[in-house]
């Protein structure tokens, strides 16, 4: 923003970019474990019991690890979201299929929350508020497509497992 506002010279921006490029990456195992615990916490927040929380932890761990692997291999992000939601939902249906816990529906509902593209949605609103309408629309539509892919993966997983929720 400072460059666009004329408050930073291009040479200074290059120095900042070089510092960012030199910064070490966050440990991907730490991110994987913490993301799994965060999703487990969402499950508890929405009323999940211990079994549902364990199921969500495993579903998130497997799905997020798959996401890391596929993105490192350069696979299309939309396909990655679809596949990760599918695998997480198949794992999360285990509560229903095997009669585990008292709240298997909470596990199924929270198993894909790690895929919600919250930051892109926030960025689209930020762009909208600053008058960058085309960028805002582009980011919003991209976020909607990712959410759609997530929904398709979740739905296909539920259908494949022949889960009768009603």
Could you explain the architecture of this structure?
With 166 residues, this protein is mainly α. Helices cover 73% and strands 0% of the residues. The protein contains eight helices and no strands. It has helices at residues 10-22, 28-45, 50-72, 77-92, 94-97, 104-110, 118-129, 133-160. Helix 3 runs parallel beside helix 6 and helix 7 packs antiparallel against helix 8 (133-160). It is elongated, with a radius of gyration of 19 Å. The N and C termini lie far apart (50 Å). The mean pLDDT is 91.
State Rg.
19 Å
Q: Work out the helicity level.
A: over 70%
The proportion of strand residues reads under 5%
Mean pLDDT: 91
Number of strands: 0
Q: What's the tally of helices? A: 8
Sheet/helix structural class: mainly alpha
Q: What about the largest sheet?
A: none
Order of helices and strands: HHHHHHHH
Distance between the termini: 50 Å
Summarize the structure in short:
The protein has 166 residues and is mostly helical. It has eight helices and no strands.
Defining traits:
mainly alpha; 8 helices
Task: Chart the SSEs and their pairings.
Layout: H1 10-22, H2 28-45, H3 50-72, H4 77-92, H5 94-97, H6 104-110, H7 118-129, H8 133-160
Helix pairs in contact: 2-3, 2-6, 3-4, 3-6, 4-8, 7-8
């Amino acid at each position: 923003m400072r460059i666009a506002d004329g408050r930073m010279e291009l040479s200074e921006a290059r120095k900042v970019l070089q510092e960012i490029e030199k910064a070490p990456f966050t440990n991907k195992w730490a991110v994987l474990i913490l993301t799994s615990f965060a999703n487990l916490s969402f499950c508890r927040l929405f009323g999940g019991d211990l079994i549902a929380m364990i199921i969500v932890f495993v579903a998130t761990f497997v799905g997020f690890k798959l996401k890391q692997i596929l993105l490192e291999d350069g696979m299309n992000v939309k396909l990655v979201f679809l596949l990760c939601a599918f695998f997480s939902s198949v794992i999360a249906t285990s509560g229903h299929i095997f009669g585990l816990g008292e709240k298997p529906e909470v596990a199924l509902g929270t198993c894909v929350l790690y895929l919600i593209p919250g930051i892109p949605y926030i960025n689209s609103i930020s762009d909208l508020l600053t008058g960058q309408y085309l960028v805002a629309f582009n980011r919003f539509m991209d976020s909607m497509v990712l959410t759609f892919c997530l929904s398709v993966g979740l739905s296909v997983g539920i259908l494949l497992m022949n889960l009768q929720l009603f």
